[in-house]
Amino acid sequence: MNIVSICACTVGIAHTYIAAEKLEKAAEKKGHSIKIETQGTIGVENELSPEDIKQADIVLLAVDVKVSAKERFEGKKVIEIPTDVAIKSPNKLIEKIEQISQQ
């Protein structure tokens, strides 16, 4: 499964990057491809390209704040959760995404 994600927390420092790291490890452990854009204090990093989004089976927004350019995911299955879910339960989250993507 191809997953694209945005991680963004209220302060834009720790939780943004911790969530991204946990999601990356959990997805890879299950054999999934994941590309994660972070929107933190230093701006947008690893920005998702239109091609990344086109190839994605699902979009995961692990966010605590409003993210920029959300309209680019129109027509995609989008799951939005707080960053603490991605940090505390990344493996369960990936399992849930697997279930949702098959619906």
TrEMBL record:
Keywords: Kinase, Phosphoprotein, Phosphotransferase system, Sugar transport, Transferase, Transport. CDD domains: PTS_IIB_fructose. The keyword Phosphoprotein applies. Coiled coil: none annotated. One of its GO terms (biological process) is phosphoenolpyruvate-dependent sugar phosphotransferase system. GO terms for cellular component: plasma membrane. It comes from the Bacteria. InterPro entries: Bacterial_PTS_Sugar_Transport, PTS_EIIB-like_sf, PTS_EIIB_2, PTS_EIIB_2/3, PTS_IIB_fruc. One of its GO terms (molecular function) is kinase activity. Gene3D superfamilies: 3.40.50.2300. Residues 1-99 form the PTS EIIB type-2 domain. NCBIfam families: FRU. This is PTS fructose transporter subunit IIB. It comes from Mammaliicoccus sciuri.
